[in-house]
Amino acid sequence: MGPPHVQEVPAVTTTPQAVRRASPRTRRPATPTDPARSLLPATEPVRLLDPTGTPLPARTDYPQPPADVLRELYRRMVIGRRFDTQSTALTKQGRLAVYPSSRGQEACQVGAVLAVRDSDWVFPTYRESMALVARGIDPVEVLTLLRGDWHCGYDPAARHTAPQCTPLATQCVHAAGLAYGETHQGRDTVALAFIGDGATSEGDFHEGINFAAVFKAPVVFFVQNNRYAISVPLSRQTAAPSLAYKGVGYGVPSEQVDGNDPVAVLAVLTRAVAHARAGNGPFLVEAHTYRMEPHTNADDQTRYRDGAEVEAWRDRDPIARLETYLRDQGVIDDDAVAAIAEEAEAYAADLRVRMNAQPTVDPLSLFDHVYAEPTPQLVEQREQVRAELAAAEQEGNA
Ligand SMILES: Cc1ncc(C[n+]2csc(CCOP(=O)(O)OP(=O)(O)O)c2C)c(N)n1
Ligand SMILES: [Mg+2]
């Protein structure tokens, strides 16, 4: 699935430098003309479709992406959800060690990926398996980490996609460094860093966004605010009016978007990417969304949230919203919807078959790449494991 061409829209013009030049040296209360205000997001998230799929009045700042791109967005969201359901099923069959579902977050996962080029870099977390398959990476390669076979199943350099990060927010620092380096090499690469609401409390988020802002590194920090960090609700995570407001403290412009409106997510991310690519430094986007499934297959969500809350979010389903809109616009019909559903089924069937094959993993590879030069302890432990494996094999042969 190679991404289609997404029309690039003009970047916003405010830069951290412009703000710095215009900022007064002494403290004074903010006024409507205060340049820092232009860094703040709109008080309401950007929304282009209402929850029923009816288009809202057109906006000049966030034009609707073209119909062929929206059709492709829909197709990848449907395939992404089928991939997600299949992956959870694979955990129950013992074929995957763990799977963090993105059900409900399809607009964010796929919309963000469609907003960047293949030559741009994506920095995913454990939550972004769906985004990775939407980027066209083989699903078996995507699931290699979660199967426990290897650190990463795809070639990060070839796919311009970093390995999925489990240590929270570490990808923000990686994204800032890579984007800074790319600019120095004379390339206009943008880095897209996915991050969760909870992870914005981590030091690495601060360090990554601050570095990117000071050195004008072209990074889009994309916060999927799905309202929980495992069992910790957003209300215990931050006292800020919205996570997007965190940008102003770093001199980074930001925006909020309805994360269950696929058209708005694509439009806002496209503009954020254009802003970064044009040399204006980083951009922060907060998408308001919801995780419909437990944190992972190993989590019991009934211990911290009410079933009624989850049910209420079913009415804001991003796939149904986009499908209604595209049907009303005559972009897709029953036949197209059926053909895409069939394609998603075939995709899941192929994944099932290939994940049933027993992987061949060398236990000694556990010790590779821990350090560039293995420590004496690692060498000793490796030898211990090697001897145990050899003894077990001899016993098996006896
Ligand atoms: C540095 C660090 N601390 C703690 C954890 C344990 N942990 C794993 S996921 C998670 C919650 C993260 O929530 P959020 O950032 O909102 O992302 P989401 O899982 O909701 O996508 C925590 C605390 C970790 N992986 N890394
Ligand atoms: Mg979260």
Layout of secondary structure:
Layout: H1 16-22, H2 67-92, H3 106-114, E1 121-123, H4 129-134, H5 139-147, H6 156-159, H7 170-184, E2 191-196, H8 203-214, E3 219-225, E4 228-229, E5 232-233, E6 254-258, H9 262-280, E7 283-288, H10 307-314, H11 318-328, H12 334-356, H13 376-397
Parallel strand pairs: 1-2, 2-3, 3-7, 6-7
Antiparallel strand pairs: 4-5
The structure holds thiamine diphosphate and magnesium ion.
What summary fits the major beta sheet? 5 strands, parallel
Beta strand %: 5-15%
> Approximately how much helix is present in the residues?
40-55%
Strand order of the largest sheet: 1-2-3-7-6
Number of strands: 7
Q: Count helical runs.
A: 13
Ligands, deduplicated: thiamine diphosphate, magnesium ion
| Strand and helix order | HHHEHHHHEHEEEEHEHHHH
Task: Tell me the radius of gyration.
Answer: 22 Å
Coarse shape = globular
Low-pLDDT segments, ≥5 res: 2-26
Distance between the termini: 50 Å
Query: What class do helices, strands and sheet pairing give?
Result: alpha/beta
Mean pLDDT reading: 92
